[in-house]
Amino acid sequence: MISDTLFSSADKTYIRQRMTEIDEAVRGNLQNFTGCPVPLPIAGACYKGIWMEHNQDWLFLADIAPESAWAAVEIFIERQKENGLFPAGVRVTGEAFYRQIQNIWPFARCAFEIAKKLEKGEEELRRIFRAAAAYDRWLGEFRDHKKLGLVEMFCEYDTGHDNSPRVRDGGLPRNVNPDAGTMPDLAILPILAPDLSAMRYQGRVALREIAATLGDDKEAAFWHEQSEVTRSAIRKYLYDPEDDYYYDVDSTGRFRKYRTEHITRLYLNEVVEQEEFDRQYKRYFENPSEFCTPFPFPSVSISDPAFVKELPDNCWGGNTQALTALRASIWLPRYGRADERERLLKKWMRAFIDFNSPLPQELNPFTGAPIGTGVCYMPSLFIFKQAAELILK
Known about the structure:
- By secondary structure, the protein is mainly alpha-helical.
- It has 2 domains: 1-29 and 303-393, no CATH class; 32-272, Alpha/alpha barrel (Glycosyltransferase).
- Helices cover 46% and strands 8% of the residues.
- It has 13 helices and 14 strands.
- It has helices at 9-28, 55-61, 66-78, 107-117, 122-142, 165-168, 194-213, 217-238, 262-268, 274-285, 322-334, 338-354, 378-391; strands at 30-31, 40-41, 49-51, 89-91, 96-97, 152-153, 191-192, 239-240, 245-246, 248-249, 255-256, 320-321, 362-363, 370-371.
- The strands form 6 sheets. Strands 3-4-5 form a 3-stranded antiparallel β-sheet, with helices on one face. The protein has a 3-stranded antiparallel β-sheet with strand order 12-13-14. It has a two-stranded antiparallel ribbon with strand order 1-2.
- Strand 13 and strand 14 (370-371) form a beta hairpin.
- Helix 7 runs parallel beside helix 9.
- The model has no long low-confidence stretch (mean pLDDT 97).
């Protein structure tokens, strides 16, 4: 269990004083993109573009700048290739790039949740459905060579786990040229990835829900069946009962046993049932020798030999990542851990206060000190806002 964090009256004054700055920073991360009439959300000051990986940011943004949140959805539909591939991101110049997947929370789910929040109509839902269904077909053609309903990892940036031992082992390239559908010539490929497969699973669940909302029972039944194919395959091929963990599997069928935060992405995408979650959470996320560090959650278990002790800048090999924490604020309550969500957010606020933080991308998992030179990282801004709401209520 994450330990409790206390806040003094001086702390609360500090939080109140920074709230205007935080709101201004969120709006400062809305940038003008060539060819887009509405400002779009960038991930932070050092990211000059919009990334699919950050689509959960758009959901939080919908409460503040709904037009920009919806424009984020639309630009990915507009830049989708004819074969169904979404861009990994779009630069402020309007140029899209397609060299990796980098899609963790599926477009279908993100877009559907924003559409519901903004009360979009049938036409918008059909656009989302067509785009998401086309993307699932692309995954089936280019990233599922064994036709298992899973998704294969080809490169480091596919998962957004920059500089993680998980995605550097075996000589994986950083990205794939000319596009994400071209598999590099490496003996270990294709690698079956649990988090990318979880993304596909939840995308199929969302497609089922959209079809049901549109009154298309036949499509809803089809996507329900497809989602169960993916969930069953994740369990059958990627689960290690000895460790009670899900791992990447290389082309020879060997587990690549890195205990990284990728398992939390199965929780984000609701792949595991409650009983399994409770068991894994207790073993790994309430354990101070695994992921329950003073400032959780490190991107790799601290007892994994691959944990990068130097904690360099932009490293998913150990650093505690704001993106992980923001996603956890979504999945923890779903699994009955609202109290853990509150403690997690307060831990981050403690780090922000103690270091008068510039709202960076990463923290030292042991001290809470900011890592790197990044400022006003969008997930950190939304963590601050959520934590402030809890502390000042």
